[in-house]
């Protein structure tokens, strides 16, 4: 069963919502920075999860880019 972030990313890709994916990426990156700058607690587990989510979002952005390139290459002139 796909995780929640995978389902969200798949939906954004299907809807060709690059802005949504970009905002999702920025949010996760800010979370990662905040967690990595924290002290007094072991944040390795949440940082690992955030890094996994960033990788899933990056893959979604790549799929969206590939889909756009495919559409442009097959479009009649």
What layout of secondary structure does this protein have?
Elements: H1 4-14, H2 18-36, H3 44-74
Detailed description of the structure:
This protein has one domain (4-74). With 77 residues, it is an all-alpha fold. The longest helix has 31 residues, at 44-74. It is elongated, with a radius of gyration of 15 Å. The N and C termini lie far apart (41 Å). The chain has helices at 4-14, 18-36, 44-74. It has 3 helices and no strands.
Summarize the structure.
This protein has helices at residues 4-14, 18-36, 44-74. It has 77 residues and is mainly α. The mean pLDDT is 91.
Average pLDDT across residues?
91
Terminal CA distance = 41 Å
Catalogue the unreliable spans.
Answer: none
Based on secondary structure, the structural category is mainly alpha
Determine the number of helices (DSSP H or I, runs of at least 4 residues).
3
* Relative helix content: over 70%
Q: Write down the secondary-structure element order.
A: HHH
Main sheet specs: none
Q: Which value, in Å, is the CA radius of gyration?
A: 15 Å
Could you say how many structural domains there are in total?
A: 1
**What is the count of β-strands?**
0
Shape: elongated
Percentage of residues in DSSP E strands: under 5%
List keywords for this structure.
single chain, 77 residues, mainly alpha, 3 helices, 79% helix, elongated
